[in-house]
Amino acid sequence: MKQKSGPRKPAAEQVLKDIRRQTRRHYSAEEKIRIVLEGRKRLAGTLIGAGLTICGIATA
After folding, report:
1. Checking phi first, is residue 12 left (phi over 0); if not, alpha (psi -120 to 50) or beta?
2. What pLDDT does residue 35 have?
3. What domain count does the chain have?
4. Residue 52 located in a structural domain
5. What is the 3-state secondary structure (H, E, C) of the chain?
6. Does residue 45 lie within any of the structural domains?
7. CB neighbours (10 Å) of residue 25?
8. For the segment 2-60, what is each residue's pLDDT rounded down to a tens digit?
């Protein structure tokens, strides 16, 4: 009897991946936009706090 070649994941790992994939959160378009805008605000605040320039305008 031949053995199957190549790497094979244990069944438990595959089951966990399937569960995570099925229970992953699905964001609406509005929620995705809100998340991106919130991240940009945080990034801009970090840059301003560091005294860096944004678009050629000195922030400090």
Report:
1. alpha
2. 93
3. 1
4. yes
5. CCCCCCCCCCHHHHHHHHHHHHHCCCCCHHHHHHHHHHHHHHHHHHHHHCCCEECCEECC
6. yes
7. 5
8. 666 666 668 899 999 999 999 988 899 999 999 999 999 888 887 777 776 655 555 44
Range of the domain at 49: 28-59
Answer yes or no: is 19 within a domain: no
Domain membership of residue 9 (yes or no) is no
Stated pTM of the model: 0.45
In angstroms, the CA 52 to CA 38 distance is: 19
- For the chain, what's the residue count? 60
Residues 6+ apart with CB under 8 A from 44: 54
